Amino acid sequence: MDIDSIPEPAKGKGKALDIDVPPPADSENLPWVEKYRPVTLDDVVSHKEITSTIEKFIEKNRLPHLLFYGPPGTGKTSTILAVARRIYGADYKKQILELNASDDRGIDVVREQIKQFAETRTLFSKGSKLIILDEADMMTQAAQAALRRIIEQYTKNVRFCIICNYVNKITPAIQSRCTRFRFSPLPIAEVEKRLITVVEAEKVNLTEDGKNALLKLSKGDMRRALNVLQACHAAYDVTRETEIYNCTGNPHPSDIEKIVQYMLSFRIHRGVPNDL
Predict the structure, then answer these.
(1) SS3 (DSSP) at 211
(2) Where exactly are the structural domains of the chain?
(3) pTM surpassing 0.85?
């Protein structure tokens, strides 16, 4: 079962950009992607069809295994962490196991860490525990086969959330055991709203052309936008278009234009036919 996100501007009381919970007191040195990570499902930017569907699962106490897939920086990890807070409250970290499969991609991790966590029942809280596997498309085929057996064996005790960029790299056996949600790139308008919130909170001197360059280069990737913004703020007093391109290593549009003009003038000077 696939449920796609259809990005659209947030409406009403479920407004996606509301950040009601202040950053923790010790957050000065945190990466901004963590400092301003959504806390509740209502805080998640866009993807309202996904969050509302999951909210119904939670209300009915029928949360299935989940498979989140889509490009980086579109809210997959933020969404499942908000789900964990919604289910378990402030002590949610005691009820979840979060692993990055790009670091722990082999079968030993599945057999040891995941199985050990899955077979340990919760003593002082009701309901299932949650295992989050980020970048699961990096797992080996053997590890995925072992994971499929654990999902089958411990369904009564544990819920899994499989997160990946490329769903075709997840075995059909695992896909069939999960409810799948596709996270699309975020609308530029939504990225801009969150950037404005962070710029005001962090007192970033961001020019209009700098903001436009950042939005253009982010391509709907909120993580990339915030990381570049923080890096530029640390390196420069004023963040303009030039600073954005210098920080990312992307060629400046003016440089590309000069190269194109040179190539065109070279063709004319050498008498190269236009159709070659």
Answers:
(1) helix
(2) 2-182, 188-255
(3) no
